Amino acid sequence: AYADVPLVVKGLRKEYADGFVAVKRVDFEVRPGQVVGLLGPNGAGKTTTLRVLMGLTQPTAGEIYVFGHPLVPGSPVLSRIGALVEGPGFLPHLSGLENLRSYWRATGRPVEDAHFEEALEIAGLGDSVHRKTRKYSHGMKQRLAIAQAMLGLPQLLVLDEPTDGLDPPQIAEMRRVLKRYATDGRAVLVSSHLLAEVEQTCTHAVVVNKGEIVASGPVDEIVGESPSVQFDVTDP
Ligand code: ATP
User: What is the pTM of this model?
Assistant: First the structure.
């Protein structure tokens, strides 16, 4: 089951060591071609959910399937997930491309599996990949970070707050980047605390509050019709 589905999350629960339940119960799917926005206010449990999906922390309960394979510690399906947790540091004296090459080398995977050109093209960095990253704007660094998460062209791209700190033109560019990526059976999952950003960049939304889903579906339905997304999803 789910062999063609990039991500299935069932009954996810995460209780931290101090007893705090950050994720009470979360169920959702990400299908090929979708750009799904995990939307909710600060503290809703978005980062915790994404960290579980990236294999960085273990869930207390629940099941996760990536193309039908259970996601468990050390699972080979982890290599099918490309992740961006927070803006990675880039070496300022190296170009964007050199930074990505050095990152990929450290993964130990074969260079021909990286697909540098395709990742950079999807990320829309153009000729600036040859410039030193110390000359990059915040938006360019963000796109380079996303290009890095795209290396190897993972079938599921998971990005935590990729539009954070970007201005409207950069958000519009981000939408094009994510839509370009979510083709050829691939899909994207992004988190955001801003309804407008999810509306602009995603095809679908999963709205979470206090560790539970309060609405989910295509963005146009969520934005237009769901009274449950009237909670505070504005900037803090
Ligand atoms: P943000 O946008 O602020 O990152 P979020 O929706 O991503 O919000 P999480 O980061 O998942 O939310 O945090 C959910 C809750 O879990 C928060 O109240 C946070 O304080 C708590 N939390 C996070 N990490 C831990 C931890 N290691 N131990 C205990 N509680 C934690």
Answer: 0.91
Distance 215 CA to ligand 1 centre (A): 20
- Residue of minimum CA distance from atom 28 in ligand 1: 16
HSE-CB of 116 using CA atoms within 13 angstroms: 16
Substitution candidate for ligand 1 out of 16, 21, 58 with most atoms within 8 A of CB: 16
CA distance readout (Å), 75 to 51, 55, 61, 119, 150: 15, 9, 17, 24, 19
pLDDT digits 0-9 by tens, 140-164: 898 899 999 999 999 999 999 988 8
Tell me which residue of 100, 103, 90, 83 sits closest to 159, measured CA to CA.
83
Q: How far apart are CA 141 and CA 127, in angstroms?
A: 14
DSSP helix/strand/coil, 150: helix
DSSP-assigned letter for residue 18: T
Structure tokens at 164: 């954070």
| Alpha-helix runs per DSSP H in the chain | 46-53, 96-107, 116-123, 138-150, 168-181, 195-201, 219-225
Structure tokens at 101: 């090459």
Q: How far is CA 220 from the centre of its chain?
A: 20
Mean of per-residue pLDDT scores for the chain:
90
Report residues whose beta carbon is within 6 angstroms of any ligand 1 atom: 16, 18, 20, 22, 40, 42-48, 193
On whether the CB atoms of residues 87 and 141 are closer than 8 A, the answer is yes
Encode pLDDT of 44-91 as tens digits: 999 999 999 988 899 999 999 999 999 988 888 888 999 986 666 899
Q: Which residue reads 């074969």 in tokens? A: 110
